[in-house]
Specification:
Layout lengths: L9 E5 L2 E4 H18 L5 H18 L3 H23 L11 H23 L1 H4 L11 H19 L5 H18 L3 H26 L2
Length: 210
């Protein structure tokens, strides 16, 4: 069974690029989850939980350790988001952040990226028994991690600014995953960029309409 989750277990070939089952399933569950998020549909959370588990396995195998640890947070926050959207109907309205909170969020993302980037660039020295290969793109990968954590928290709280962060995360992810030759996943983030753009438009519309 464990062989099924190995990146060498191939589902199909696309013009010479071999798509593994783990990458395929991670891509599909991610698309479904983001689509539901763009529609402000609660099903984004259970599908997101499955996506997080699959990508945790994938990212470990391609040495994107910050992204790997990010999936642990994603799994936890999907449970919180699921509870928040389902059990607190009075708090479900889409809202926006004030200027001060936006500035604070920006500072958190930048500081978190620098600290995490430094840590992951040395993780193979700190924990050589677990991470035998140095992290790939530690600072860019850390930005993806920190910005995604922040964006998912804002999504769970139904703050419209989450989509601006997701647009930046998607651009960074396209570049990093392409550089790591995870082409199918990189292509997914092109679609994610489109879905995030739609989500931003749709949430603005819902917020205006009350």
């Amino acid at each position: 069974m464990t062989e099924f989750f190995d990146i060498t277990h191939i589902a199909f070939d696309v013009h010479g690029y071999r798509v593994s089952y783990i990458e395929l399933l991670g891509t599909l569950t991610g698309l479904v989850s983001v689509y539901y998020a763009s529609r402000a549909n609660i099903l984004t959370w259970p599908t997101g939980s499955i996506n997080a588990a699959l990508l945790f396995i994938l990212f470990y195998q391609v040495q994107l350790y910050a992204d790997m640890f990010l999936q642990v947070y994603f799994f936890i926050i999907t449970l919180y988001g699921w509870y928040f959207w389902n059990k607190k109907p009075d708090d479900k309205a889409i809202t926006t952040m004030g200027p001060q909170k936006r500035l604070t969020t920006f500072i958190i993302v930048i500081t978190g990226t620098l600290l995490a980037g430094y840590g992951f660039s040395h993780i193979h020295e700190y924990l050589p028994e677990y991470f035998t290969i140095p992290a790939a793109w530690p600072y860019a990968d850390s930005f993806i991690m920190v910005a995604s954590i922040t964006a998912t928290t804002l999504l769970a709280q139904k703050k419209i600014e989450n989509w601006y962060l997701w647009l930046m995360v998607n651009i960074a992810s396209i570049i990093v995953y392409y550089a790591k030759e995870v082409y199918f996943l990189s292509s997914e983030y092109v679609i994610f960029f489109g879905l995030a753009s739609y989500g931003l438009f749709n949430w603005h519309k819902k917020m205006r309409n009350g």
